[in-house]
Amino acid sequence: RRIGRLVVLYSFIGIAAGAFLFRGLVGPEGAAWSEAPLVGVALSLAGPAWIRATAAVAIAIAAFIVLVPASRGAIADAEQIVRRLASEGSAPAILAEPHPRIGTFARAIDVAGGSAVAILLFSGGRVDWLARAYGFAVGASLLVKIASLVQLRKTRPQPKPFATSINWQVGGREIPLGLLVTGGLVTIAL
After folding, report:
1. pTM value?
2. What residues contact residue 169 under an 8 Å CB cut-off, 6+ apart?
3. Is 42:59 a contact under the CB 8 Å cutoff?
4. Per-position pLDDT tens, the chain of length 190
């Protein structure tokens, strides 16, 4: 619960406040910097041009240093998901087999890497489109999890180790209002 509250607090302070600060600092030309908002903020600050340019380059280098390990981890996770799907029979079994000569799961790595390249080509590398697609995927995943939890409450009525904070008792039946309201809000947001 504490972690959930911390995530919500960070969402409001770190993300929403950052968006308002970006709009206030960069001003009406902010649309030009929607792909790289921190660079736009650095170039909009007061001071000598060489300091602003140095800050913009430092931000680009920092983004590269942060994003390379993140993208490597994402490709590794995608490769594991492809192997798991192949092991369960949802994808061709050859994807779960190691390469006969190399000994790695080269086919699963190729599928994961190829999917990432296809997504980048399809989106044209536009960060705003990728962010919307990612947000939609997270929302859809959350809806599936909420629907699963609601269904599991019906099929497994034993005591639950954790339940959402708003549950109503109607006629001896528990209605998970907290889950349903959360699912409704996510549906509206999608």
Report:
1. 0.54
2. 175
3. yes
4. 788 888 888 877 777 777 777 777 777 776 677 777 778 888 887 888 898 889 889 988 998 898 888 888 888 888 888 888 888 888 888 888 887 787 778 888 888 888 888 887 887 777 778 778 888 888 888 888 888 877 777 776 666 655 666 777 777 777 777 778 888 888 888 7
